[in-house]
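hey
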């Protein structure tokens, strides 16, 4: 057995984890909304057309915030099309995804759905084809009590109380030339600054997210961030990051190392933010919103074969494997390790579209492999993050050099009297024994070791085989000694080890 060493101690605290780190994302794309959240006539649908089975699965994730309505879609979206009587709403061509948008689901439906799901809305505004006036009007519609044109329109549409949406995204991926209304950093920075000002004049309590680079590989990164923050630093609370990973060449070992690139991306954006802070002599420390992240590559070829201008076509419907779940686990660990600056995270997306939840239109539902690490992190990853100082053997990678076999982080929840370790074993063939020094937690005792692993790393869950891949409790994987615990991490596995701190 290979061994690795780590420490759990209060003095290694990183920061308190913002619950919103475990958020998600819904875009008007494919079957995320129609056939996902919203399907009137489905056997489980309620009186508002929301699928009950989807709501149940989302509630189980305990997702605190959901970003909406895009994504690329938002850069051509007229929010007014999605409110008011259904029969009066126009059908539009969505240029972002070459689809037909019926506008049967809009802002009010989304907020109602969020309330039923037990989550908070995170709203994006269109800074592609629209700008300052539409931005302030939408904030007025959503958050102003009444007595004005747009707030009274909301009341007329059946929402007497304000939606009280607190987090707003100033556009989406405006650095990308695929974006409707793509802009240079200077153009976007000036527009975002002016939009932020008037949105805050309407509601001074909101938080704002400026668009950062749509990936670390963009030729404009990180100059984009520097230029945008030159204009927006005083007006926004967060800058966004987006990244997706895939295993197109079939190199699993390299695929499992991708989160190292995520770590570097976060640290480079933090450095850029701090440079602008110093340059501007500003007291505020800019925080990060990693509001799109996931594995995405399986569906690329199928998407190219879709005919344009369908309503809710099956787009971006990745079926996730065991190895995909391990990468998602590593990415969750990266977010937790950087919780001192990354306050918001959004797994992209929530249902059907590169999602942990998959449905059949008119039919059943399944939890994908990626559902489980996301659920575990959301359920047990609330509290204070602990840097475990993992010392692990490693393997060589042509991009990331020495890649540690064990990726891990701790979370301390004093109010629940719990300590949790999240760990991924990247070793594809061998068990790794993780020796954890617990001298600072003398009463800690293991109450559960959950592992997600499978003999076939390409195994998936389907509607026909919904339980092929599922986490299991390991009964004989832990050896407890005085102030030290050895945890046997199975080959190629996601692990959750829960300790009770009760004496």
């Amino acid at each position: 057995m290979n061994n690795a060493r780590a420490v759990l101690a209060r003095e290694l605290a990183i920061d308190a984890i913002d619950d919103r780190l475990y958020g998600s994302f819904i875009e008007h794309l494919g079957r995320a909304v129609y056939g996902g959240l919203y399907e009137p006539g489905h056997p489980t649908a309620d009186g508002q057309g929301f699928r009950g089975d989807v709501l149940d699965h989302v509630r189980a994730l305990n997702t605190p915030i959901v970003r909406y309505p895009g994504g690329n879609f938002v850069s051509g979206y007229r929010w007014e099309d999605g409110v008011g009587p259904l029969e009066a709403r126009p059908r539009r061509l969505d240029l972002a995804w070459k689809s037909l948008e019926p506008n049967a689901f809009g802002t009010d439906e989304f907020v109602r759905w969020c309330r039923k799901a037990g989550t908070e809305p995170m709203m994006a505004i269109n800074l592609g084809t629209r700008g300052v006036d539409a931005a302030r009007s939408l904030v007025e519609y959503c958050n102003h009590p009444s007595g004005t044109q747009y707030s009274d329109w909301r009341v007329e549409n059946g929402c007497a109380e304000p939606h009280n949406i607190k987090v707003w995204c100033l556009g989406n991926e405006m650095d990308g030339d695929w974006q409707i209304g793509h802009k240079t950093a200077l153009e976007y920075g000036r527009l975002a600054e002016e939009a932020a000002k008037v949105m805050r004049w309407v509601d001074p309590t909101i938080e704002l997210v400026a668009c950062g680079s749509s990936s670390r590989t963009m030729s404009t990164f990180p100059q984009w961030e520097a230029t945008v923050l030159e204009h927006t630093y005083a007006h926004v609370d967060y800058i966004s990051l987006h990244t997706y990973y895939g295993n197109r060449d079939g190199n699993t070992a390299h695929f499992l190392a991708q989160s190292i690139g995520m770590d570097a991306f976060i640290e480079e954006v933090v450095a850029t933010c701090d440079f602008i802070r110093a340059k501007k002599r500003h007291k505020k420390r800019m925080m990060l919103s990693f509001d799109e992240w996931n594995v995405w590559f399986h569906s690329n070829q199928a998407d190219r074969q879709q005919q344009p201008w369908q309503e809710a076509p099956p787009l971006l419907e990745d079926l996730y494997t065991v190895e995909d779940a391990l990468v998602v686990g590593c990415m969750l660990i990266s977010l937790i390790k950087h919780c001192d600056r990354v306050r918001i995270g959004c797994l992209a997306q929530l249902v059907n579209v590169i999602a942990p939840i998959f449905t059949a239109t008119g039919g059943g539902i399944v939890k994908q492999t990626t559902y489980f690490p996301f659920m575990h992190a959301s359920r047990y990853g609330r509290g204070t993050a602990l840097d475990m100082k993992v010392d692990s053997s490693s393997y060589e990678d042509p991009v990331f050099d020495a890649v540690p076999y064990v990726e891990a982080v701790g979370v301390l929840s004093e109010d629940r009297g719990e300590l949790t370790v999240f760990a991924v074993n990247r070793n594809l063939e061998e068990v790794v024994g993780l020796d954890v020094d617990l001298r600072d937690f003398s009463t800690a005792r293991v109450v559960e070791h959950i592992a997600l692993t499978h003999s076939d790393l390409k195994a998936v869950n389907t509607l026909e085989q919904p339980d092929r891949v599922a986490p299991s409790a390991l009964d004989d994987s832990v050896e407890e000694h005085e102030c030290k615990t050895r945890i046997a991490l199975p080959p190629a596995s996601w692990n959750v080890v829960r300790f009770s701190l009760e004496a």
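The chain has a mean pLDDT of 97. The CA atoms of residues 197 and 456 lie 53 Å apart.
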